[in-house]
Amino acid sequence: MLTCERAVERLSLSLDGSLPLVEKAQLHLHLLACGHCRRFRRQVLVLDTAFRTDATGPVVPDDVRLPEDARQRITSELGRQVVDDS
């Protein structure tokens, strides 16, 4: 079984597509057993997507939804800042 430290190293190689099949299987098994590394992997994937996507593209997973009241507060605050800055 991989340690978390080794799993993190392998995660990076996995994203680059340069992880051998056996090590990919070991990483998969570790991720099944380790919630901390699964969470870290999700965070890395979000960051990877953000860096690979242009500024107008999505940077969060599709299953993450902002509540409507929060969306309205943010939109309102952004509108207020635009008016204040002009």
TrEMBL record:
Record-linked Pfam families: zf-HC2
Domain annotation Putative zinc-finger: ranges: 4-38
Entry superkingdom: Bacteria
The protein, known as: Putative zinc-finger domain-containing protein
Organism the protein comes from: Fimbriiglobus ruber
